[in-house]
Every structure is written in structure tokens, then in C-alpha cells.
Amino acid sequence: MKKITKMQILTGVLLMLYAVWEVSVYRWAQTLPASDPIIRVDLIIIYPVLLICIIISLIQFKRRRV
């Protein structure tokens, strides 16, 4: 069994925090009137950070399996 790297732990934590964030934004959006548009500017930062972390973690995982 291979040791989990700090980057992989960070990626897992970030994904869990993102899930909590999405649930809270969903609940907040339900309180708005139907005529209000929801523009998710936060995703411009969140998605690239998550994507980079996931790619790095997958590369580390693949290299350790060899």
C-alpha cells in the first residue's frame, strides 16, 4: 500500500469543502425570488483550482503505482 501525499489529502479536503459550498449556495439560491438571476462568479476561481489539484493528484497516484 502506497502512502497518500499531502497534495492528495489537500485535494480531498478541497473537494469536500466544495461540496459543502455547493449545498450552501443551492440553499441560498432557493431563498431568492424566481426573477433574480444567479450568476456564479465564484466558479471562475473554484473550478480551475480544483481541476489543477485533481490533475496533480492523479499524476502522483499514477507515478506511485508504477
Key features of this structure:
single chain; 66 residues; mainly alpha
What does it look like?
There is one protein chain. The protein is an all-alpha fold and 66 residues long. Helix content is 73%, strand content 0%. It has 2 helices and no strands. Helix 1 runs antiparallel to helix 2. The mean pLDDT is 93.
H/E series:
HH
**What best-fitting shape do the alpha-carbon axes yield?**
elongated
Task: Tell me what portion of residues adopts beta-strand conformation.
Answer: under 5%
**Low-confidence blocks of residues:** none
Mean pLDDT: 93
Termini separation comes to 12 Å
* Beta strand count: 0
Rg calculated over all Cα atoms: 16 Å
Helix content, binned percent: over 70%
Number of helices: 2
Largest sheet: none
Structural class: mainly alpha
Summarize the structure.
With 66 residues, the protein is an all-alpha fold. The chain has two helices and no strands.
Question: Which secondary structure elements does this structure contain, and how are they paired or packed?
Answer:
Blueprint: H1 6-30, H2 43-65
